[in-house]
Specification:
The chain has 590 residues and is α+β, with helices and mostly antiparallel strands. It has 15 helices and 28 strands. Strands 1-2-4-3-6-9-7-8 form an eight-stranded mixed β-sheet, with helices on both faces. The longest helix has 17 residues, at 106-122. The structure holds zinc ion. Residues 102, 105, 205, 590 line the site of zinc ion.
Length: 590
């Protein structure tokens, strides 16, 4: 009762009457009660901040405030973590839900507030919502762009006139003077996402009836296409919503969906809300139940060091193939959502020997597979895609007209050299995170190898940095395999390696530009080899074919393997867009 009394007093002092009414109605009836409104009647940024604070105070057992960051004009970007034991990192799947990345899409802000109320009020009153909160860590951020939202009238862009949903650093392309993650709002979402390990995401927008999945930057469907379709279908259910492959609706570069899947392994969706009527929550409530349930389907477990038992920040890959996902470094837990079937699951952490478990069966629930990895210095290589920029020639409508055949996938540049590579594309670039656990240090001899998949004439320039926002220092230039010695640069250690294509080829051809197979950390092999470690079991190349000299490599139909490069991707139809339509879409949607 003490808590209740305090909460009433706070209400009376701080909150406007409409907030009090909504909150009391929610508490009394066990469900969200406010209907969608236009920007003119939406709560202000200050009111949303107060509301989030009130939620955390009223539900201390399951909700805690998260200071995500600040806008250009120093307005707070605040989130709410909702989970049983919300102050602790638990070995649970994580879901990120955001709204208001476009400041004039006020309904998307209110939708996330509705979801917060729904989750909180459902705890211990609704069996399924209780199981969600007990089993998932939610991070809900109702308003990513408080400056645009607070402008009069509200604006799509932030205070620097940047569209934040074009400012994320994957599949980004040159559309303005701004660089990827130039804005504090997009950096805030990036940083809070990197600090966790999100398995699912929802990004709410207005105004349409689309459930939009990746990719948005390329006509080639992602490796997890069937899974992404299934998740989208479950959100849509029997509503009027249409599930669309992003590129087929309209093409954009640098959005949250593509960055989330391409760098974090997060299955993230753009949900375009219809305007106005009260029926909208009746559509999204069952949709959210179906969507969140996917967190409990697939393979899950922990990755630890076999000797010390300590949790590892590790990459999880599956065969049949999908994008890599990553453990949460705090507990070493991973959650790989999968359709029913039988899989090979591989865990790898920089400095450890990869370990594969075969014949893992998934059948509408979670199958547990734990990994204990042994150290192996030879496997110290690129761990995570940090950023990826498309060739500068690419504009969305232009690509739709002239075609784009580069079907290579950025994550194929990760790990040791294996005959799979990412074709950067003429003028494009990729930045590889070598991982927080093992720095690239200055050791005798070269410290980094940038391994070419084809040793073609395509040339590249290599830059290194110890922070993802730079400054980057130029480290090497040339074609084929490139080596970096940090002592030449007067650098003690680096973590990020950026490879910028400098070749003179058409941007849109297959295998265009430098073919990045791997970035390997040579220094750690010198500085910290485990006892008895040799490179004898390092995957060998056949020097003629450039193929790995092993039959353990997975066969795959959507990877770039030397001499057998294939551009046929089943189920993918390129849909040329009318330029006028594309322009219209770019201006007004998503
Ligand atoms: Zn939008």
């Amino acid at each position: 009762m003490g808590a209740m009394k305090r909460f009433r007093i706070t209400f009376g002092r701080l909150l406007p009457p409409w907030v009090v009414l909504i909150f009391i109605a929610m508490v009394l009836t066990g469900g969200p009660r406010y209907s969608h409104a236009s920007c003119s009647t939406a709560p202000s940024h200050e009111e949303i901040e107060m509301l989030l604070r009130q939620y955390a105070q009223s539900y201390p057992e399951i909700a805690v405030l998260v200071e995500v960051g600040e806008s250009v004009s120093s307005r707070a970007i605040t989130g709410l973590r909702v989970s049983a034991q919300p102050d602790e990192e638990e070995a649970e799947p994580e879901i990120r839900i955001i709204g208001g990345i476009h400041g004039n899409e006020c309904q998307s802000v209110e939708e996330v507030l509705l979801i917060i109320e729904w989750l909180l009020a459902g705890y211990q009153t609704d069996a399924q919502l209780t199981s969600f909160i007990d089993g998932v860590e939610f991070l809900l951020i109702p308003l990513v762009n408080p400056d645009g939202f607070s402008s009069s009238p509200p604006t799509r862009t932030n205070a620097n006139y940047v569209d934040l949903n074009r400012n994320f650093g994957f599949g980004w392309s040159q559309q303005s003077v701004f660089e990827p993650f130039s804005e504090p709002e997009s950096r805030a979402i990036r940083d809070v996402s990197q600090a966790g390990a999100f398995n699912l995401g929802l990004s709410y927008h207005t105004e349409s009836i689309y459930v939009n999945g990746p990719w948005n930057y390329t006509p080639f469907h992602p490796r997890d296409d069937a899974l992404i379709d299934a998740i989208g279908d479950s959100y849509k259910a029997d509503s009027e919503y249409e599930v669309v492959f992003g590129w087929d609706w309209y093409q954009i570069s640098g959005d949250v969906n593509d960055w989330s899947l391409g760098t974090q392994g997060t299955f993230d969706w753009t949900i375009e809300l219809t305007d106005g009527d009260d029926a909208v929550w009746e559509v999204h409530e069952p949709a959210l139940r179906a969507f969140i349930s996917w967190a409990f389907v697939g393979v899950s477990g922990a990755v630890i060091d076999a000797q010390t038992g300590l949790p590892l920040h590790a990459m999880i890959t599956v065969e049949p193939e999908g994008e890599p996902v990553f453990t949460d470094a705090t507990k070493g837990d991973y959650h790989r959502i999968l359709l029913n079937g039988t899989y090979e699951v591989t865990a790898w952490a920089p400095g450890y020997r990869p370990l594969t478990v075969e014949n893992v069966t998934v059948a509408e629930s979670v199958t547990t597979v734990d990994f204990a990895l042994t150290r192996k210095a030879a496997y110290t290589a690129g761990f995570q895609v940090n950023e990826m920029t498309l060739p500068r020639d690419i504009s969305n409508s232009y690509v739709a007209l002239v075609g784009y055949d580069n079907d290579s996938i950025a994550s194929d540049a990760l790990g040791v050299h294996d005959g799979y590579w990412y074709s950067i594309g003429a003028g494009g670039d990729i930045t590889i995170d070598m991982g927080a656990a093992i720095a690239v240090e200055d050791a005798p001899g070269p410290d980094l190898l940038v391994a070419s998949g084809t040793r073609s004439n395509d040339s590249a320039r290599v830059w290194v940095a110890d922070h993802q926002d730079g400054p980057f220092v130029e480290a090497a230039v040339g074609s084929g395999d490139l080596y970096v010695d940090l002592s030449d640069l007067n650098l003690a250690a680096v973590r990020y390696v950026k490879v910028v294509d400098e070749s003179d080829v058409a941007f849109n051809e297959a295998g265009s530009g430098y073919d990045l197979d791997a970035v390997e950390n040579l220094s750690w092999r010198v500085l910290a080899p485990p006892d008895g470690d040799t490179e004898s079991d390092f995957p060998d190349y056949d020097s003629d074919t450039m193929l790995p000299d092993t039959d353990t490599q997975p066969d795959s139909d959507n990877r770039n393997v030397a001499a057998t490069q294939s551009h046929a991707v089943s189920g993918c139809t390129m849909t040329p867009q009318h330029p006028a339509f594309t322009l219209f879409s770019l201006l007004f949607a998503n």
